[in-house]
Amino acid sequence: MRVKFITAIYNNLYGTDLGGRPSRVEHYKWSLLSLLKMTNADFLCYTSEDEIDELKNFFYVQNKITNSKLEFRVFNLRKTKFSSLINNIKNIEATKKSDRCIEIQYSKFHWWWNEDKSYDYYYWIDAGLSHCGIIPNKYLDMKLNSYRKYFESTLFNNNFLFNLIKKTGDSFYVIRKENSKYYWSRTVDKKWYKNYDSSYHVIGGLFGGKSDKWDVIVSLFENYVKKIMETDRVLVQEEVIMSLMNANHKELFINDDFDIWWTRDSKPKDLDISYFEDKKCFYHIIEKLNTSYE
Predict the structure, then answer these.
(1) Domain locations in the chain?
(2) What is the DSSP letter of 188?
(3) 270 contact partners, CB below 8 Å, separation of at least 6
(4) DSSP 267
(5) pLDDT above 70 (res 292)
(6) At residue 12, what are phi and psi to the nearest 5 degrees?
(7) Cα 89–Cα 183–Cα 22 angle in degrees, nearest 5
(8) pLDDT of 178-206, one tens digit each?
(9) Angle of helix 238-248 versus helix 211-232 axis, rounded to 10
């Protein structure tokens, strides 16, 4: 069983016409290093020409990761599939202040067309997914005397990988956040839905499935993106498109659902601990994937 994770690290986008999260250099590196404990999978990481040498030094030289286990590939985000459409709509000044990059979001799907389909399963995973904001301290190596302790988690391992594949089966796996009682995100105009339902919001941090499922999913995603951009003249996050797809094409997906992002360790200080008693946190999904799925 061959498995490949695709991800990306672009650290210098905040304040540019692309937009992106600021000050994430160490976050992304240490988090991705933690994810690499899934040693039975290979990883591909897209990045910029300016960053690739630093990343190769960190992973290949300092941490002895082989380039067969983790490949870096340069990609210019200003040459994405829908660049011309995006640039005709994008508000540049607002984007400079934004912490999200629409080009990376859409490329999570576009990059699929670069694959030779030689792996049995493919997953997208955000390089920064392993962090203390969504993983409780009991699953972090808080004994480390460095910034790494906030990202080094025991949850991402080969047992997690095995159960992720088992859970996925012949479907396309996505994780959804409850979006009505515990609101997280707006959606697209109701006209795009077969039967309007915004009660769940698909997250873009981890998704995927069998190689033969990706063509359909990516083509569907790209068709929705193009039609919505051309018709409504808006740029919407990849998660919003994924949520629309999940609602309109239920037969394609298998879902894991959660209520809230916070853990008891990362909650706002004024939030009472009782708040968590009847809620499923994001990490509970990762925790479950470390046990088994029947």
Answers:
(1) 3-288
(2) -
(3) none
(4) S
(5) no
(6) -115, 35
(7) 55
(8) 999 999 999 999 999 999 999 999 999 99
(9) 110
Write the DSSP assignment of 42-75 as a string of letters.
EEEEEE-TTTHHHHHIIIIIIS---TTTEEEEE-
Query: Which tokens go with 71?
Result: 């490949």
> Edge-to-edge strands of the sheet including 172-178?
70-74, 41-47, 3-9, 121-125, 200-210, 172-178, 253-258
Report the predicted TM-score, pTM, of the whole model to 2 decimal places: 0.95
Q: State the residue for tokens 């499935």.
A: 209
Output the pLDDT for position 293. Answer: 55
The percent helix, strand, coil of the chain (3-state, each to 5) is 40, 20, 40
Q: Which fold has domain 3-288?
A: Spore Coat Polysaccharide Biosynthesis Protein SpsA; Chain A (3.90.550)
| Residue in the structure block whose two tokens are 């993983």 | 135
User: What confidence tens digit (pLDDT) does each residue in 37-66 have?
Assistant: 999 999 999 999 999 999 999 999 999 999
The closest alpha carbon to 44, from 8, 17, 18, belongs to 8
For 29, counting Cβ atoms within 10 Å of its Cβ (0-12 exposed, 13-18 middle, 19+ buried), the class is buried
* Type of residue numbered 208: G
Which tokens sit at 195?
A: 């039967």
**What is the distance between the terminal CA atoms of the chain, rounded to a whole angstrom?**
19
Residues in Cβ contact with 163 at an 8 Å cutoff, skipping those fewer than 6 apart: 288, 289, 290, 291, 292, 293
